[in-house]
Amino acid sequence: MTFKARSLIGLVGLSIVDAVIPIPIVGLILIFVILQKPPWFQKLVGELYEV
Known about the structure:
- By secondary structure, this protein is an all-alpha fold.
- It has helices spanning about 5-20, 25-35, 40-50.
- It has one domain (about 5-50).
């Protein structure tokens, strides 16, 4: 399974959890990423846009 497919499945899973549970999990993760700038996120973006 490619990295893009795994990422898409993960995002779909988070979206489903976000719709079922009234706590905005995706929003909290976004706030964390914006404020903390974790290295795993930079690696994720690098792998997604790698040509």
